[in-house]
């Protein structure tokens, strides 16, 4: 369910855009009709929400530099195309793929000064390595499904790729085990036996989340869940899952 603040912001944005289109019609810049209006409304919505996400990020109220800047740039280019300043339309979105290189560069810079200990899986469950400081981002899939693989605290960072965990095949020590996954793009699929207690704090900027039958999807979505006996359980898993784009799924097995 959408929050009241978001609905109010969306309604206010629509009013602002509608007023701007009517002004353009009155001064002869464009002719107002339903089809024409939408061609100007949706790029402005992209711009406004892009600015909002960037401002929210500055104010530490959520938001996203990546999504905010992308929607701002995309919406601005479409508007320039509408006024024949440049040749750009919605279908030209694929021309913006070099922005991924820019975002990857900033991600490497922002994490190159880190001091935290990070565990990175290289695709083989027996080849985990730990790093202190430096960039630990990687590209590729990570699978934890070998018989009797040992569960340890992990902090996994990926630029792009999928994560697959099958805890029904794992050896889980009797303690609280934190597992953090962060990725720019990819899917996270986790299978957990019904007799194992766990807690999930999941968020996606664009995508869907399904945890034990509970689901949310869309833009800037999050979901928190914990089993009834989590607080008193001796053996338990604590997941923090963050994706820019993709899907998160946690199922019982």
Can you walk through the features of this model?
This protein is of the alpha/beta class. The chain folds into 2 domains: 4-96, no CATH class; 114-252, no CATH class. The chain has helices at 4-26, 34-58, 65-82, 98-112; strands at residues 117-120, 129-132, 138-139, 142-144, 149-150, 154-160, 163-166, 170-171, 176-192, 197-211, 214-226, 236-252. Strands 3, 4, 6, 7, 9, 10, 11 and 12 form an 8-stranded mixed β-sheet that branches. The chain has a two-stranded antiparallel sheet with strand order 1-2. The chain has a two-stranded parallel ribbon with strand order 5-8. Strand 1 and strand 2 (129-132) form a beta hairpin. Helix 1 (4-26) packs across helix 2 and helix 2 runs antiparallel to helix 3 (65-82). The longest helix has 25 residues, at 34-58. The radius of gyration is 22 Å and the shape is elongated. The two termini are 28 Å apart. The relative contact order is 0.09. The model is unreliable at 111-136 (pLDDT under 50).
In a few lines, what is going on in this structure?
The chain is an alpha/beta fold and 253 residues long. The chain is 32% helix and 36% strand. The strands form three sheets. Strands 3, 4, 6, 7, 9, 10, 11 and 12 form an eight-stranded mixed beta sheet that branches.
Task: Note the topology.
Elements lengths: L3 H23 L7 H25 L6 H18 L15 H15 L4 E4 L8 E4 L5 E2 L2 E3 L4 E2 L3 E7 L2 E4 L3 E2 L4 E17 L4 E15 L2 E13 L9 E17 L1
What's the structural domain tally? Answer: 2
Poorly predicted regions are: 111-136
Total strand segments: 12
What is the average of the pLDDT values? 77
Helix content: 25-40%
Structural class: alpha/beta
Into which percentage range does the β-strand content fall? 35-45%
Global Rg: 22 Å
């Amino acid at each position: 369910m959408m929050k009241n603040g978001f609905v109010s912001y969306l309604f206010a944005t629509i009013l602002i855009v509608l007023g701007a289109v009517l002004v353009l019609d009155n001064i002869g810049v464009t002719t107002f009709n339903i089809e024409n209006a939408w061609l100007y409304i949706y790029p402005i919505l992209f711009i406004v929400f892009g600015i909002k996400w960037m401002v929210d990020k500055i104010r530490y109220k959520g938001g996203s530099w990546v999504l905010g800047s992308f929607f701002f740039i995309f919406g601005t280019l479409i508007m320039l195309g509408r006024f024949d300043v440049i040749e750009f339309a919605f279908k030209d979105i694929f021309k913006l793929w070099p922005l991924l290189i820019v975002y990857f560069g900033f991600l490497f810079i922002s994490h190159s000064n880190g001091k935290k200990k990070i565990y990175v899986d290289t695709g083989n469950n027996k080849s985990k390595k730990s790093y202190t400081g430096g960039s630990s981002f990687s590209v590729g899939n990570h699978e934890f499904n070998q018989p009797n693989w040992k569960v340890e605290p992990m902090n996994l960072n990926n630029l792009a790729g999928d994560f697959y965990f099958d805890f029904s095949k794992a050896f889980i020590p009797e303690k609280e085990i934190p597992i953090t996954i962060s990725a720019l793009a990819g899917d996270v699929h986790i299978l957990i036996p019904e007799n194992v207690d766990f807690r999930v704090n999941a968020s996606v900027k664009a995508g869907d989340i399904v945890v034990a039958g509970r689901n949310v999807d869309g833009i800037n979505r999050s979901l928190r869940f914990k089993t009834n006996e989590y607080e008193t359980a001796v053996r338990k898993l604590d997941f923090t899952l963050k994706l820019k784009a993709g899907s998160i799924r946690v199922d019982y097995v």
